[in-house]
Design a protein that fits this description.
Chains A, B: This is Transcriptional regulator. Two copies of one chain form a homodimer. Chain A is of the alpha+beta class and about 100 residues long. The first copy, chain A, has one domain: Arc Repressor Mutant, subunit A, CATH 1.10.10.10. Chain A has five helices and three strands. The first copy, chain A, has a three-stranded antiparallel sheet with strand order 1-3-2. In chain A, helix 1 packs antiparallel against helix 3. Chain A is globular and about 35 Å long.
Chain lengths: ~100, ~100
């Protein structure tokens, strides 16, 4: 868990997270790659994913994942960090994230 | 399996079905209800689902499910029937449909 404060952006309570929003958020290969990297390697700053998409597009993807309750963002110095909400998601939608990631293999 | 012919509409080969399309198609409560009813009760004509949505909306939902490879449609007399492609989907995306349906409970 991060030591810094949550970024000044909205994070939905897990009970308010809708399945439809999670499915839409995971219905994109770049967003699934972000989730997979966070799952495999832990918290990570937005600028360090090395994905072949424009910064504005990447920003859109992080926002979609955050609004769907899939990740939290917090500020650490000048970096915006991302952390997966896997335990919360697994409690609310058992096995969903891993099943979707496996399906994409 | 149906005895009638497939309806004269496009059905993607299962290998051409994209995960993104399946997730988008399942990201809707009415479409999940259609899938759940087909799963529980077998093949069924479009007009017999008794869902509280307009016929045009329902038609849109069946089309979305068909294009995503989730169901097949065939004509039987004057009725358009629907059949779930569960075995094919489970071979391609193991456990995905049941995990999503369970998550919606």
């Amino acid at each position: 868990m991060p030591l810094g404060r949550w970024a000044s952006v909205a994070h939905p309570e897990i009970d308010a997270v809708e399945l439809d929003d999670v499915l839409h958020a995971l219905a994109d290969p770049t967003r699934r790659t972000i989730v997979r990297m966070l799952l495999a390697e832990g918290d990570r700053a937005c600028g360090t994913f090395g994905l072949p998409v424009a910064a504005s597009t990447l920003s859109h993807h992080f926002r979609a994942l955050r609004k769907a309750g899939i990740l939290r963002q917090y500020d650490e110095g000048r970096q915006r960090m991302n952390t997966l909400r896997l335990d919360e998601l697994d409690a609310r939608f058992p096995g969903l994230v891993s099943t979707v990631l496996d399906a994409a293999k």
